Amino acid sequence: MKRFGIIALAALLVVAFSIPASAIENQFGGYWRTRFVTQQKFTGDDSGAKDLTQTDTRTRLYYTAVFSENFKFVNKFEMDAVWGNEAASSYGDIGADGVAVEVKNSYADFTVADMLRFRVGVMGTQHHRGFLFDDDYAGARLNVDFGMGDLGLHWIKAYEGGQGNDANDMDFDYYGVNFKFNLGDNMSLNPQLMWMYSKDGSGWGNDGGPGDFAAADKVNIAFLGLDYDADFDVFTLGFTGLYEFGTIDWQNIGGVYQGPFGPNVKDSDVNAYLLALNMGMDFGPIGAHAEGFYASGDDGKNSDYDGYWVPKGQSYYWAEIMGYGIFDEQTSAGSPGDQIGNIWAANIGASFSAMENLSLGVDLWYASLVEKRTYPDGSRQDGLGFELDGKITWGIMDNLNLDLVGAYLFADDATSLTGKNTEDPYELGARLSLSF
What we know:
Blueprint: H1 2-18, E1 25-40, E2 52-68, E3 71-82, E4 101-112, E5 116-127, E6 133-145, E7 149-159, H2 165-169, E8 172-183, E9 187-198, E10 216-231, E11 235-250, E12 252-253, E13 256-257, E14 267-283, E15 286-295, E16 343-355, E17 358-374, E18 380-397, E19 400-411, E20 426-435
Antiparallel strand pairs: 1-2, 1-20, 2-3, 3-4, 4-5, 5-6, 6-7, 7-8, 8-9, 9-10, 10-11, 11-14, 12-13, 14-15, 15-16, 16-17, 17-18, 18-19, 19-20
């Protein structure tokens, strides 16, 4: 894939500079960052098993060929390097010759009849602020502009099983329809239905993480969601609600069903939900904000699954230590990170613009699991703890910013690998970034 990325990038540049200027407009852009971070005691003890101090660099280059007002070809490439890493996928070692170009996006974007916008290829999208989906994917989108609103249809090809009857049954697809419409100048609603389906989900997701369907046969799950947003200049408000429902049939091997609820359970009904609320107030140089979210967990009392079943592609960043934040190398033990399921969390924060190019921010989070987790020693815990995050952002010059971050988690016992927390995780870091 990485060698293909280099070849693709070179080919695009050759095409871009060989086509007459009158026939095409070439647009270039990008993003670059270098991060310095130390993350300590993220296991919740003094073992040092996940202690990390490192520097990394990410570069993203964008090239768009604009053929007309209604037709363009969009491409994004990414290069990552951990300083001193000699892996072939990194260029951060002595010699700096790693093969590290990734193709992030490559798609055609064209509008027909002034209202039908098609995007086909590999692209990125976000649904319900990331509580449902926020990632790159291969697929297609159609948006229909009705003036007062927008109707969207999308297809995400999550997994391609391959050739042949059995392999073809393992295809995994997401299908969705959403409608965003404005309620005057200050408010909007965005209802959506997303359906996830596979005749045999066992071929996809054998990593043991959220959204893993390795034990599943037929998967038939839907998400019904709603976003509400209001912006009244000094006050903003946002709400997200998601209801998940459907069924999962478990694989039968030798007369034994492979699901997590026992060898005699043929299938499970899924009934779960997620609620999120955010608000902010702007008083010129001073701002205040708050948010909270709740994603149901499974109590294990029957064969139905009541926990919010995190679909692959869901990603919502929140606290620095428990929710990835700016430095997304790892999260503290026990936290689901950006995959929001079986957790509730609340936040209050404030920001202050000390001068035109300098701002300060502070956030306080509390998080807990909805249903207690059972640990190897038999103990059951749910509290993750209070986290205090601080950030200073300095606009050094146009397009160039420096972020300084410090975070400390006053951890509870669920922030551990054993069910007994003995140390508090902390993080210090800096990020230098530019965009163009």
